[in-house]
Amino acid sequence: MRFKGGVLAALAATAMTFGTSAVQAKELFLYNWANYFPPDLIEKFESETGIDVTLDVYDSNETMLAKLQAGAAGYDIVFPSGYMVDVMREEDLAMKIDTAELPNFKNVQSPHDSPSYDPSREYSAPYMWGTTGLAYDTAKAPELDETWEEYFKPRDELKGKIAALNDQVEMYNAAARYLGIDVCTEDPAQAQKILDLLMAQKPHLALYSSTGTIDRMVAGEVVMHHMWNGAAHRAKEQRESITYIYPKEGLAFWSDNMVVPKDAPNPENAKTFINWMMDPQNAAVATNYTGYMNAIAGSGEYLDESLKSDPAVNMPKEYADRLRPSKECSTAARELRDKVWTTLKK
Amino acid sequence: MSGRGGNPLWRFAGVRPAAALFFAYLYLPIVILIVLSFNANRTVTIWTGLTTDWYVEVLSNGDILRAARNSLIVAFSATFIATVAGTLAALGMARGRFRGEAAVNGVMGLPLVVPEIVTAVATLLFFILVGIKLGLLTVIIGHTVFCTPFAYLPIRARLEGMDPSLREAASDLYADAWRAFRRVTLPLLWPGILSGALLAFIISLDDFVITYFVAGAGATTLPVYIFGMIRIGVTPEVNALSSLMLLVSILFVSLSFLVQRQR
Amino acid sequence: MLAALRRSQLAQRTALLAPSLAIIGGFMVLPLILMAYVSILEKGTHGGVEWGTYSAEAYIKFLFERDLMGSLSVNADYLQIFLRSFVLSGVTVLLALAIGFPTALYIALQDDRWYRNLLVFMVTIPFWTNLLVRNYAWIILLRNNGLIDNAAAWLGLTQEPIDVLYTPFAIGVGLTYSFLPFMVLPIYASLEKLDLRLVEAAFDLGADRRRALARIVVPLALPGIIAGCILVFVPCLGAYVTPELLGGSKSLMIGNLIQNQFGAARNWPFGAALGFALLAIVLLAMMAYALRFRRAPGGGT
């Protein structure tokens, strides 16, 4: 009951705030990763608001950006990662929606209420967040230290049984952090050090791949995988002995956000949706489905037990200072990164 | 079939086992896939037990069904247009040599040669420049372009070295042309047309990159949906979905055979 | 009279070619011209391009490397990636031809037309599933402790794990698989008109199998073989999913390289330039081939 009342109040508030705007069709176009939004939550939203939702999907932040940059329109909400929110703002692709003014914004937990890429939450609202660390199978390896060293300079028994992400940003950044180099370095000498490390690691890797990571760990094809924490959690559900480590040198902390593109056809419906998603119960449904944490206070009580008890998802407090928010680098830094990646794999 | 008596198949003794091997190679992964679609484990590649849950889930997931429907609409439309255009072009090219033949050949092969991502971004920029609204139609246009050479080349190969007078007569555009075309040319070309159409169809059904870029809101197709699962991991739903697609293909093939037999 | 005939022939040919040329010309050539323009623009800070600001950097980058001082030196990295993709495509073509040709012949030699058509459909039915899904199926087959490994061990053929997944061999298996229909069907289409009496006569005249193949079957199939090779070789150059999933993605393919430029590297002009470099190489190769083919006796009509 409490919940229903909350939604009605939110809707009323939304209606009052935007009541003067032109009448919009009762539809909403979402643009997200596939399997990253629970279908039943869409149904719930539709039945509560009468707004018809259509979901389209993309496979990476970059292709989503490329498509918007080329001028594709028609989406009401996209779900970019933090650094991509930055890019979208600078490229004038995001609409100013003043998320902080929405009634349910009060539920947003720190630090998600004021991220570096949108400090006063004018353009974006938090969806899910996660980390990119290491997962390994404790049944097949000795206990490993919480350091990237286990990954970049593996022990003999792990050599050839490690899978890397096929993602130049994740790989480059992990190597940079291990070496204590700024991930956005513009110094070729430092980029060279990163390349040397990656080159030395390459012979010890079984493969680079960002797809099928969960399968690979569960099937025991590899013993260690550079992995997203939600994927590690799903792998653990299938194979108890898999554990996730937060390397002490720092690991990528990313967050996916809801952003309304500049030319969205139904911005008011988008705001209604965003406000609705900042309700604890709805956010919890999304977390239970995706296996990643949301940023909404009070959603904890609705979470599945398995999520609450897994340190991969429900991060123990002592690791908080190891998280490094993703950031957008300069053109020069990106060029160095791409050069390192191309040379690594030429 | 008469006129094919004295089949020399037995002369090429190695051909039959080679073909058997070929079909085994082709269907081995498909069998695996169908078996795994009944796998109770949420991880795609690890077997734990039998279930039909994934089928229930696919059939109740509106997004996946919509994507499958879009894929089929696009594949059938693009295949149809590309095959008609490809057949006409092959007939045109078969009427002797002419100046500019190399250029025409080059243009026909262009969609094969240009990397998909370049075509994709170029086509998207172009659509936006000329103000065509992105939707399912733009996907069909994009697919028709790259399907055309796939349909054209087998038909062209079929026509190569055929009796020119026969096909000249047949492809004549004069009075009785339509009947001549149906009675003479079409049966002659049929193996080429069937091959070309099938290739166009499967290349369309699998396309991700171009579809992704030129699709408008609401025009997600199956490959785009499946690639979008990369972050979360591909679920056995996809296997179930693939098995259902196989079922559709078998139904479609049976249907076309029934229709042919009736005639 | 003759001139009029020729004119009407020209009109007919134009009418027949028009739909295809309109489709490809309107929705491929025009966009590519736009892309050629993009390739000589300055890249945008976050991807995209600076419209109206010109730069030749993209083409210079393909062959040369700028050091810190801004001076140029030759850089063969990209050429090396191109070469690798060409070799891989070539191997795939050969494998597909070796497996596909006998099958096409087998199908073409069937007496029953319905059975022939059925087999043709059967060649394409597996491809109603998705590319990723088929590759996953191959992973299950090829990996250590996978089906083939276990079967071989059970039969006592192997003592050690087979270790084929994430090797070039696995890429070959996967790519050949993906492109088989594109080899089989064009060959079948040109072989189907094979006049069996001709083959039979050749045998009656004492030709052995090799000669019957070389003198009658292969020449007849040649247009199909060429079409098949083109349909396998060229699309294979851009393949990137199979090399990643089955090969472990330790080396880039042209497809990855170009994809990267529109993705993480966000360098559209360079991506476009790479695309045109590939286009130029393939077109040159085809032109050279066409010139040779034209001079050869009996080539073309």
TrEMBL record, chain A:
Gene3D superfamilies named among the record's database cross-references: Periplasmic binding protein-like II
Query: Where, in this chain's numbering, is spermidine bound?
Result: Y83, D167, Q168, V169, E170
User: What are the recorded GO MF terms, alphabetically?
Assistant: polyamine binding
- InterPro entries noted in UniProt: SBP, Sperm_putr-bd
What keywords are assigned to this protein? Periplasm, Signal, Transport
Which parts of the chain are coiled coil?
none
Where it sits in the cell: the answer is:
Periplasm
One GO cellular component term, please give it: periplasmic space
Q: Name one GO biological process term.
A: polyamine transport
One matching Pfam family is SBP_bac_8
Q: Which domain of life is it from?
A: Bacteria
The answer, when asked if Signal is one of the entry's keywords, is yes
Keyword Transferase attributed: no
The residue range of the signal peptide is 1-25
Any idea what job this protein has? Required for the activity of the bacterial periplasmic transport system of putrescine.
Family per similarity comment: Belongs to the bacterial solute-binding protein PotD/PotF family.
What is the name listed in the Swiss-Prot or TrEMBL entry for this protein? Answer: Putrescine-binding periplasmic protein
TrEMBL record, chain B:
UniProt KW keywords: Cell inner membrane, Cell membrane, Membrane, Transmembrane, Transmembrane helix, Transport
Q: Name one GO biological process term.
A: transmembrane transport
Q: Which residues form the ABC transmembrane type-1 domain?
A: 68-259
Q: Which InterPro entries match?
A: Bact_Polyamine_Transport, MetI-like, MetI-like_sf
Q: How does it sit in the membrane?
A: Multi-pass membrane protein
Q: Where found in the cell?
A: Cell inner membrane; Cell membrane
Q: What is its main location?
A: membrane
What's any one GO cellular component for it?
Answer: plasma membrane
Q: Which residues cross the membrane?
A: 20-40, 72-94, 106-128, 134-155, 184-203, 209-228, 240-259
Q: Which family does it belong to?
A: Belongs to the binding-protein-dependent transport system permease family. CysTW subfamily.
Q: What does this protein do?
A: Required for the activity of the bacterial periplasmic transport system of putrescine and spermidine.
Q: Give the matching PANTHER family.
A: PUTRESCINE TRANSPORT SYSTEM PERMEASE PROTEIN POTI (PTHR43848), SPERMIDINE_PUTRESCINE TRANSPORT SYSTEM PERMEASE PROTEIN POTC (PTHR43848:SF5)
* Protein name per the record: Spermidine/putrescine transport system permease protein PotC
Q: Which organism is it from?
A: Ferruginivarius sediminum
Automatic annotation (TrEMBL), chain C:
Q: Name residues in a coiled coil.
A: none
Mind listing the UniProt keywords for this protein, alphabetically? Cell membrane, Membrane, Transmembrane, Transmembrane helix, Transport
Identify the Pfam families for this entry. Answer: BPD_transp_1 (PF00528)
Localization? Cell membrane
Q: Which residues form the ABC transmembrane type-1 domain?
A: 82-289
Q: Which SUPFAM superfamilies match?
A: MetI-like
Q: Name the principal localization, coarsely classed.
A: membrane
Which GO biological process categories is it annotated with? transmembrane transport
The organism's place on the tree of life at top rank: Bacteria
**What is the recorded membrane topology of this protein?**
Multi-pass membrane protein
Q: Please list every transmembrane segment annotated in the UniProt record, as residue ranges.
A: 21-40, 81-106, 118-141, 169-191, 212-241, 270-291
Q: What Gene Ontology terms describe where this protein resides (cellular component)?
A: plasma membrane
Membership in a protein family: Belongs to the binding-protein-dependent transport system permease family. CysTW subfamily.
Record's protein name: ABC transporter permease
